[in-house]
């Protein structure tokens, strides 16, 4: 079976990598590429940039849309895919919990699969799982995440997901700290707590040229520290996870949040 793929955000850095990975795979066919720039530009043989999702999908009939666009557009994009009964794999971060709940409900209502992951790198997913394991044994932890200076949302989806996983096994990861006073607002980073008030994890976001994506989780207790770190050297590292998610969503009609659910 050949899986027909549409790439939305085709001219972005991740979109270009997805196109390359799809074209090089034996079981995928790139049927359309969507972007708001360079309309008519050929991204590969017989596939040119189109600007209208509805018209392109009606004509090309993709099985799956892979979306790496922007936080301010991705939510409406996902609802469009589900309304069209087109399955989707979403790599754009910045969606709120309320938006994720709405997408999950619409996916069930339409019986159409939607796969959203904060990070498609298998190494990054393992880093998150290792951090969750370590959180059982430490009562102090902070997260530092580093991205290129063109990333708009902060903290990263990976950092938020890591904090959520850690909070599932430890309700307070700032145990024993003295009362703090920030002389400059934000000096201690953003504090993550879930809807129950659990977690208490400080997250620090760095945006700087030279980074792709890195994250370090630091744990501390009396007399010791543990650091768990993952570095993405280039965007090729995400492609195995993206293609894995596409293959999964083709075979399943459910909503999935996080690559760890299919590893």
Characterization of this structure:
This protein is an alpha/beta fold and 263 residues long. It folds into 2 domains: 3-116 and 236-261, NAD(P)-binding Rossmann-like Domain (Rossmann fold), CATH 3.40.50.720; 122-232, 2-Layer Sandwich (Dihydrodipicolinate Reductase, domain 2), CATH 3.30.360.10. The protein has 7 helices and 13 strands. The protein has an 8-stranded mixed β-sheet, with helices on both faces. A 5-stranded mixed β-sheet has the order 9-10-8-11-12. Helix 3 packs parallel to helix 4. The longest helix is centred in the middle third of the chain and has 14 residues, at 97-110. 41% of the residues are buried.
Task: Give the structure's gist in a few sentences.
This protein is 32% helix and 28% strand.
Q: Please, how many domains? A: 2
Order of helices and strands: EHEEEHEHEHEHEHEEEEHE
The average pLDDT score comes to 96
As an assembly, this protein is: single chain
N-to-C span: 22 Å
Low-confidence stretches: none
CATH architecture name of the largest domain: 3-Layer(aba) Sandwich
What overall geometry do the principal axes of the alpha carbons give?
elongated
The biggest sheet amounts to: 8 strands, mixed
Q: Predict the CATH topology of the largest domain.
A: Rossmann fold
Helix content: 25-40%
The fraction of residues in strands falls at 25-35%
The first-level CATH class name of the largest domain: Alpha Beta
